């Protein structure tokens, strides 16, 4: 009986060991599965972390290299972050002018003028890790403003041209009749000196008006150009030869610094007219013994001519209207000279920019190179 009990106990123990071995095997299998799952999850986490890092690096690269200036400021006005464009912007603007940009502290979109530059500013809210502030996205729209200004100027010139052409034709017809009748009267009254002087004044006045009308019609009609390559010095020499007597009358010092090798691709006769007009204005602007300097600069894309004088300068309120027709500060001026100059330069696909301050005025004429 004791042996049977021992055998039974041994059998129970064997079964217990078998169950233990099975449980251990299952546990090992489960542990292996758990290890595999953990390895899989670790691998997925690594992939996600790499993707997150790549996206973060990409976002950072885009933000830091964006042409828009991006600045983040907290509620206390402390700088939290800025990109490369913002770094350049902050370096180029005085601190007091920066306040014009960062003074706005609510979500908005606005344009602001700082010095001679224009900026479009977008302001948004910032919240990160409990810290509040403002995000500023700033774009320099100076060039865009200049384009808009030029478009408005061109539209205005077109309207003024259409109106001026109609007026000029209406005036020219009766003006021709007045000149003819005055000439006939002068012939009939040849012996009367006093009346002849009056008729001469009438004829002279008619010719002056007719010259003004010719300028108006020149301003209104399309300018046809024939371009070729010329040495700038040859063009300037012809202009100075024609205008030297006017400079001599005012004892003006003329400083010709044109590089003899610089060329310009243009209609030479029209560019002579442009330079002549600007130099004529410079002669009027300077005092007796004043100075006029002309120089050039050539690049791969274009050629520039600079005409500088040491006159009284151009009124800042007038400089934006300087190329508009019938805007003139001269007592006897029609205000068409610089309008025609502007039209000639635009016909060459070029640009003309006046820069002025008391004691200095510079006109920069830029003409693109042609093939």
Strand arrangement in the largest pleated sheet = 2-1-5-4-3
Shape: rod-shaped
Please work out how many helical segments DSSP would assign: 9
The unreliable regions are none
Share of helical residues: 55-70%
Q: Please summarize the sheet with the most strands.
A: 5 strands, antiparallel
CATH class placement of the largest domain: Alpha Beta
What does it look like?
This protein has nine helices and twelve strands. By secondary structure, the protein is an alpha+beta fold. It folds into four domains: 1-65; 69-140, Beta-Lactamase (2-Layer Sandwich); 145-220; 228-368, Heat Shock Protein 90. The strands form three sheets. Strands 2-1-5-4-3 form a five-stranded antiparallel beta sheet. Strands 7-9-10-12-11 form a five-stranded mixed beta sheet, with helices on one face. β4 (117-128) and β5 (131-140) form a beta hairpin. α4 (142-188) packs antiparallel against α5, α6 runs parallel beside α7 and α7 packs antiparallel against α9 (337-347). The longest helix has 64 residues, at 2-65. The protein is rod-shaped, with a radius of gyration of 41 Å. The relative contact order is 0.07. The model has no long low-confidence stretch (mean pLDDT 80).
Give short descriptive properties of this protein.
rod-shaped; 371 residues; 12 strands; 5-stranded antiparallel beta sheet; 9 helices; Beta-Lactamase; 4 domains; alpha+beta
